[in-house]
Amino acid sequence: MTKSSGRLKRILIALTLAIVAVPATAVGAGVWLYAAADVSTVGRVEFANPLAVPPLADSTVDKDGTRVFDLEMQPGHKEFTAGQQTPTWGFSGDYLGPTLRAERGEQVRVKVRNSLDEASTVHWHGMHLPATMDGGPHQMVNAGDNWQPHWEVDQPAATLWYHPHPHGATEKHVQRGLAGMFILDDDKAAELPLPKTYGVDDLPLIVQDVKFEGAQFDHGHRTMANTGFLGDTTMVNGTLAPYREVGDERVRLRLLNASTARSYDFGFDDDRGFSLIATDGGLLEGPVTLDRIKLSPGERAEIVVEVHPGERTVLRSYASPDSDFWQDRFGGNDDSFDILELRAAKALRSSPELSDELVGPAGPEVPDGSDPVRERSFDLRMSGINGEPMAMDRIDASVTRGTTEVWTLRNRDGMPHNFHVHDVQFRVLEVDGERPPPELRGPKDTVYVPGSRTVKIALRFDGPADPDTPYMYHCHLLYHEDGGMMGQFVVVEPGQKAGKPPVGSDHDHR
Ligand code: C2O
Ligand code: CU
Ligand code: CU
Question: Is residue 387 part of a domain?
Fold first, then answer.
């Protein structure tokens, strides 16, 4: 039986049961809601707007060699559609933010200024750094205040990102436009034959789903969408219906799912293969040829795609059901989108062939999980992780600096969740007891855990220790995170006890 006829059969059975059990009007309403719930822009996007590319952030280098960035959280307006001024928030601009870029081994400092009229934070998603610099809910920056986190970049080349993390309001702050990329470089990656000219053959793609009500964003949740906000169209880097002219044979696309609830299953309209070269935390052992890459909220993937002179090809997000049919339909997995059109020039510059090795046989710098000091399990439910909703004054786990742990993540709801851990890049050891697929074999900081799936990960905590300041782990479907699907862990020295998070003092301005 094909997948779709199986689905159809399940739907018919469920509808039949429903007809037996409930009055006809309720069934009618259910059928109508079900039928109306999926959204597709495939074949209907005009690709009328040139893709915006976020500028590289300016930086200065201090006397002591620290690279210093400025980032201002500010309200603004943006014309997503000609003649319509949409109220927005942005970092040092009207919507989204500049791309920060630094090298492994560098000291960086970001001068964050909050010019909004409410408190927020800036979190460095995927970055290994001290807990006080993390920008989670314990590092609130009040309206009008400054915050200057600083750290040493001590991890491989990767596509990371930054966004606010105020407890209970993250969805709203990200939706209004607060998000940007943070690219890390290292010497080894710099020598690889990869497309690497930013904004030319190396493109950041910040993908979000949106909905407009006139000129305003409509952030309302759809009926029965328990995953959170689901838009009816998508934009890339803040551009609706985007196209991009390409002048090189091979283009590197740094895909970031910056949507608050929606997962995408990216591929091209002609199903061409592409090379996956990196996951959340950096390069794979070697490129892997795929024709789809699924990214849940917060995840990244770097892919290299080949284009032919004069052609057009569309980056698409395909429907990819993976839970029960009801969850798939109302959670957005049945939706499909035309995301971005690539328009290849008539004459293309030649690009180097990809090499078979990226980081090579030693593999990515993530623990192999063979020597865990401890195993833990996390039961994922929308109402809370391991049965408890997030509490700012409760430390849920303390881990010892310099040790590796194995965590088992179990989705206990039918609805999709994912799991993100601050400060570390982890290795996915198993998905439902099996070796993970290639796209989950690189360094990860966020992993999709749909339906009743179980995922095992290995994480190593290198510190520094700080028993009083927690890092977060949470579902990155922001509606779930805001609702309490989050927990806190501290990194301690061997034998040290967890302290107390400084609650009430929401103002850590170190
Ligand atoms: Cu991207 Cu705790 O988040
Ligand atoms: Cu994070
Ligand atoms: Cu969730």
Answer: yes
